[in-house]
Amino acid sequence: MTLTPVHKLWLLDLADIVLVAVLFYRLLILVKGTRSAQMYVGLLVIVLVGIIAREFDLIAVKWIVDSLKTVWLIAFVILFQPELRHALAQFGRTRYFRSFLRGDHYGVLGEIVRGAEQLAQRRHGGLIVVERNVGLRNFVETGTRIDAKVSAELLVTLFSPGSLLHDGAVILREDAVVAAACILPLSANPRTAAMFGTRHRAALGLTEETDAAVVVVSEQTGGISVAFRGKLKQQLSEGELRSELARIFRVRAEEEAAQVEALPEGGEATEKAAG
């Protein structure tokens, strides 16, 4: 079927509207629950005022809005720098780009295991969260940003009793320590409250709400546990901890592969960019 020029124009207009709608939706998702949400609303108000000024030919308002155009791009980049960086990082983690940019997951696991072992030997409590597919930005914002490469030495330092950041959880994303001293939700299960302390309840609470994995080091016993999908495996040795974390990473890879296979051809990049 041959499309007429009018039909082609309608399709282009429709594609234009859909792309703009998707863009604004993704921006709303990126700033949802963050301090940038108010700035985003303010920016939309300025855009709306500019449209109204043009529609009703409000000369003074239109002049002010036009004068601001030269600084809008710079202001947008400055105000939304964290969200833009996060969006670009998400795009880089799509299936095809990740094959070129894949981090050394097993190297990260080794650092986590070494850090947990050293904390256990010193009887220093620890709460190490490994982010998977569900973003943990809301929990990251309750703590102090670190943005440093994962290492056993850094984890041990953060959880040392003399550290100002030893209370709360450390959140890892890919091969980086994103934040420390983060506050996690406690499990609402009454049996959990009776059986475990605050660290273990926080680990279970987060894994009940998200798909993250949490490594817990007990301050009282020095035992190491892993919480995943609302279940807790306790008293793990170094080898068992490494095997359990490796299994969780494999589960993540299998889930991502299953999601990609469920998409129609050409839908991988769209699905991941929207995630």
From TrEMBL:
Keyword line: ATP-binding, Cell membrane, Membrane, Nucleotide-binding, Nucleotidyltransferase, Transferase, Transmembrane, Transmembrane helix
Domain of life: Bacteria
GO biological process: cAMP biosynthetic process
Transmembrane residue ranges: 6-28, 40-65
Entry EC no(s): 2.7.7.85
Catalysed reactions listed for this entry: 2 ATP = 3',3'-c-di-AMP + 2 diphosphate
Domain DAC residues, every copy: 81-238
One GO MF term: ATP binding
Stated family: Belongs to the adenylate cyclase family. DacA/CdaA subfamily.
Subunit structure, as described in the record: Probably a homodimer.
UniProt function note: Catalyzes the condensation of 2 ATP molecules into cyclic di-AMP (c-di-AMP), a second messenger used to regulate differing processes in different bacteria.
Stated name of the protein: Diadenylate cyclase
Gene name of this polypeptide: dacA
